[in-house]
């Protein structure tokens, strides 16, 4: 039998959509404070927020009528007509938050407008007001939420551990604070100060929130959209989007499209599933974004998402090319990423800190035969050094090599740092950039094989090679089918040198068979494999001129901090860290 639900059940269902956990309450109350024009917002919790949450602000406050009405369902001061819904500029607008919170808690509201002699205190349990009394208070509002979910105890079973709930509250306050650096935010847990953020510039607030991290800034301005991104370099990327804050028109949201666009900009610099830390702050014409698509307003819908995502991706990618956290000087010329056009950008570096410190060895160190060269030998007027410093790129040598260890890593000195460089990863990045430029120019450097090489493949692999002969030719590979699932190679990329091309061809065939990704992505994966096969191997001893040549080339390439697969090329240890280990500081 179909029945009409009671008002009490309707309220609890609605509350379940808006109030999932204590952090949801904190978010809604802070947003109300911001909409009220508060310059100071203080949040206190006890018992992980389930016992109580209190938010105090110095906003405009409410009179007795509004204070009593605000916990009614769909009571709001933000919109009056349907047109208002299309041009939302406030954080709240539905009139659901306080009603939903009140429905599943015991709530006290103390508030006063500036022109009122006394304030008012409203108390409600389970959404029902039990008392409204005059109350002496200052201008602003205090909302105290106690015994959350007292009347829906089943909801408590779905909460995480107290520590997790507290962390979610902290992140909520932190994330909102990034959009409003002019506001003071204070946070207390069980009576103890946890966070104090004083008014600052946007730069300053970013530095306060992401303290100790290397952050670079980029911004771009379009006709209807502007964004400012404050992001960490690739070597500080973390798994998942946990540390990436996305703000649209002052509202913190979760958006896989924007996160994906940022990750795409870092493609080849970070591992799959990893994301930079930091924040992207987007300002867009309200007519081009719909914020009324999620009960908790955590998601939005863009009118033309592909253009916005492309705009973000291209700008961030063009800045990453310069490795701004690594280089003092470098090539500033514009490059095309395969399949993309780049957009002019403005960039700035803020707050640079050292990388992670050394870790004490767990086992006794073994001795290996390593190469250490006299430091001054590298500063002589050898031809390699002279060539690289007199080119039109105007490079200043940044890394001075000391030697090679384990026949795999190059030890360098740079100002007050010691830097270890993975010689294979460095060579791989250099070769990949050469191959990419050749592909984009349509003029791959090819070498004819003295004797054609026949490669035996699986049937589907041979078919894939045959169907993509033209694509492979654009990368310097000349191949033809020769029957019995065999492919005959007559020419290969010049960069391979004397390397046996058969294993490489097998890998390329497997990439083509997978059919994963757009043509541009497939090309990038093939170029990565060619670069890998043509690069200096780990375990190869290098002469000093080979090391110098490698470093000078590395300084000239884009993305000089990571190999094409996203692994770091270098690891930096500051002089301060070394001195700390030896007790000199």
Notes on the structure:
With 585 residues, the chain is of the alpha+beta class. It has three domains: 7-197, Histidine kinase-like ATPase, C-terminal domain (Heat Shock Protein 90, 2-Layer Sandwich); 202-350, Ribosomal Protein S5, domain 2 (2-Layer Sandwich); 355-585, formyl-coa transferase, domain 3 (2-Layer Sandwich), CATH 3.30.1540. 31% of the residues lie in helices and 25% in strands. The protein contains 17 helices and 26 strands. An eight-stranded mixed sheet has the order 5-4-3-6-2-1-7-8. Helix 2 (22-35) runs parallel beside helix 6 (162-179), helix 6 (162-179) packs antiparallel against helix 7 (202-209) and helix 14 runs antiparallel to helix 15 (519-533). The longest helix is centred in the last third of the chain and has 19 residues, at 423-441. It is elongated. The model is unreliable at 327-370 and 373-396 (pLDDT under 50).
């Amino acid at each position: 039998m179909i029945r009409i639900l009671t008002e009490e059940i309707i309220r609890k269902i609605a509350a379940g959509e808006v109030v999932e956990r204590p952090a949801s309450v904190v978010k809604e109350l802070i947003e109300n404070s911001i909409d009220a024009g508060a310059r100071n917002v203080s949040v206190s919790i006890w018992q992980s927020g389930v016992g109580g949450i209190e938010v105090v602000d110095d906003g405009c406050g409410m009179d007795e009528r509004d204070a009593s009405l605000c916990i009614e369902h769909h009571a709001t001061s933000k919109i009056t007509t349907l047109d208002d819904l299309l041009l939302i500029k406030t954080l709240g607008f539905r009139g659901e938050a306080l009603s939903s919170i009140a429905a599943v808690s015991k709530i006290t509201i103390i508030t006063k407008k500036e022109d009122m002699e006394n304030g008012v205190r409203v108390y409600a349990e389970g959404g029902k007001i039990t008392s409204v009394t005059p109350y002496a208070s200052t201008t602003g509002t205090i909302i105290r939420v106690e015994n959350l979910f007292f009347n829906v105890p089943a909801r408590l079973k779905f909460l995480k551990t107290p520590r997790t709930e507290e962390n979610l509250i902290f992140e909520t306050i932190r994330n909102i604070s990034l959009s409003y650096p002019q506001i003071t935010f204070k946070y207390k847990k069980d009576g103890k100060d946890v966070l104090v953020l004083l008014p600052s510039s946007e730069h300053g607030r970013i530095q306060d929130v992401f303290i100790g991290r290397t952050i670079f800034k980029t911004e771009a301005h379009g006709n209807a959209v502007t964004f400012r991104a404050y992001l960490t370099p690739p070597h500080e990327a973390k798994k998942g989007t946990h540390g990436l804050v996305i703000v649209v028109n002052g509202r913190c949201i979760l958006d896989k499209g924007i996160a994906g666009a940022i990750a795409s900009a870092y493609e080849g610099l970070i591992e799959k599933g990893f994301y930079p830390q930091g924040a992207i702050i987007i300002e867009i014409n309200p007519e081009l974004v719909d914020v009324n698509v999620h009960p908790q307003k955590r998601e939005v819908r863009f009118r033309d998402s592909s253009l916005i995502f492309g705009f973000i991706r291209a700008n961030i990618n063009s800045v990453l090319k310069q490795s701004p956290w690594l280089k003092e000087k470098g090539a500033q010329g514009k490059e095309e990423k395969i399949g993309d056009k780049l957009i002019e950008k403005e960039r700035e570096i803020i707050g640079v800190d050292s990388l992670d410190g050394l870790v004490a060895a767990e086992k006794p160190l073994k001795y290996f035969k390593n190469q250490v060269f006299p430091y001054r030998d590298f500063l002589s007027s050898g031809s390699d050094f002279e060539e690289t410093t007199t080119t039109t790129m105007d490079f200043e040598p940044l890394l001075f090599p000391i030697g090679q260890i384990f026949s795999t890593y190059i030890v360098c000195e740079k100002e007050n740092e010691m830097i270890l460089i993975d010689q294979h990863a460095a060579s791989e990045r250099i070769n990949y950039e050469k191959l990419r430029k050749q592909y984009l120019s349509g003029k791959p450097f090819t070498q004819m094989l003295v004797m054609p090489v026949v490669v035996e493949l699986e049937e589907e692999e041979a078919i894939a090679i045959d169907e993509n002969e033209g694509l492979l030719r654009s990368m310097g590979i000349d191949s033809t089918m020769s029957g019995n699932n065999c492919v005959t190679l007559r020419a290969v990329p010049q960069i391979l040198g004397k390397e046996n091309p058969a294993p490489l061809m097998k890998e390329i065939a497997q990439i083509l068979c997978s059919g994963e990704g757009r043509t541009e992505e497939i090309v990038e994966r093939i170029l990565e494999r060619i670069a890998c096969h043509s690069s200096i191997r780990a375990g190869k001893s290098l002469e000093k001129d080979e090391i110098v040549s490698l470093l000078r080339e590395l300084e000239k390439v884009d993305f000089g901090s990571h190999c094409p697969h996203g692994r770091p090329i270098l690891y930096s240890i500051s002089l301060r860290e070394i001195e700390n280990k030896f007790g000199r500081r």
